[in-house]
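User: Hi! I have a protein structure encoded as tokens and I'd like to know what sequence might fold into it. I'm fairly new to this, so please keep things simple.
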């Protein structure tokens, strides 16, 4: 299987749960080039791992991280954040 195959809708931002465990889950997040995962808050800590593409993570605390394949960022609970995709990008979100 390939993560690209999980996202068949023609939408700029798509998610699909890949794995659910007793205490968390893994989500595949795909963002089209020049699109944005709009500002939001997660209630639990999360790890955002770039699988392919190029994007920038930003949060309300002023953190800005460029993400390329293999890069990751820890997302704090209850902190507003967003992701801007510079090119077609795919991430794994681990909560």
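Assistant: Happy to help. Inverse folding works backwards from shape to sequence: for each of the 95 positions I chose a residue that suits the local structure. Here it is:
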């Amino acid at each position: 299987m390939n993560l690209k195959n999980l996202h068949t809708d023609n939408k700029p931002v798509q998610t699909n749960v890949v794995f659910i465990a007793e205490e968390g889950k893994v989500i595949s997040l795909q963002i089209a080039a020049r699109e944005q995962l709009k500002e939001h808050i997660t209630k639990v800590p999360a790890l955002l791992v770039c699988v392919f593409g190029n994007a920038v993570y930003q949060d309300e605390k002023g953190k800005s991280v460029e993400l390329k394949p293999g890069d990751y960022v820890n997302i704090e609970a209850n902190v507003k954040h967003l992701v801007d995709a510079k090119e077609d990008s795919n991430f794994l979100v681990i909560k």
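A useful reference point when you look it over: The radius of gyration is 12 Å. Feel free to ask if any position seems puzzling.
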